[in-house]
Task: structure prediction
Amino acid sequence: MRDLRFVIVTGLSGAGKSEAIRALEDLGYFCVDNLPPSLLPKFAELCSQGGPQRAAAVIDVRGGEFFDDVYGALEELERASITYTILYLEATDEALVRRFKATRRLHPLAPQGGVLDGIRAERQALDGLRGRARTIIDTSDMAPRVLRDQLAGVFGDRGGRRPLAVTVTSFGFKHGLPLDADLVFDVRFLPNPNYVASLSDLDGNHPQVAAYVLRWPIVRQFMRRLRGMVSWLLPHYLAEGKSQLQICLGCTGGRHRSVVIANRLAQALREANFSVTVHHRDLSKGGSTP
Result:
């Protein structure tokens, strides 16, 4: 039996499983959607005996009463010494309700309506799988492109890069903390371009804003200390077998300082041969405030 990269995709309805399975297909995975859990061991066995070297299967509550077989199927995979990774996708209640209303689809656990009741019931039904997941991604404020990039970092060929996919996210504290943050750094103490008339309407991706932020000695000292701390931490996360890490940098509105620092940190990590995705969560949400 040869080595098989086997991914089980699950999570909340509306959280992006369809986009995830398309991304995995683009990465060379043979994918099956809405597979009854009892067929997981047979599917993995067939793939490991001469089929594709990469395979992924989506299992979720759409399986109805078949979904109850999921834990027995996982135990059977383990008895057969088939290594698997669970990818779990989630989002906030607000984001999921918004998506269901936009698509006008019924929730699989609330066929009579009541989307929010269906979401809450689904969270409870999937809680055990979430606890077994090695990779959990919150897609509440994530564009499809960012999700695809993050999956490529975790499940794609890294071309010699270290086996830890890092996402560096900028955000604004006034819009709330990212729910899936592993490390959070507050950069609101740094000089704020929002108070400079010629810069306030620009964002941190603009060269003039970046030059303004990086000109200050306190910023350069902070960047040296931040790079040193993160460089020290990442090997320890690797040693623990972690496959992804979410580093979040927050300023007030998420448009100026955090964007500049996130870009600069991502550049440093790429130079250190890590797979890095940059996500500017709040870039389009309006100007920052004091």
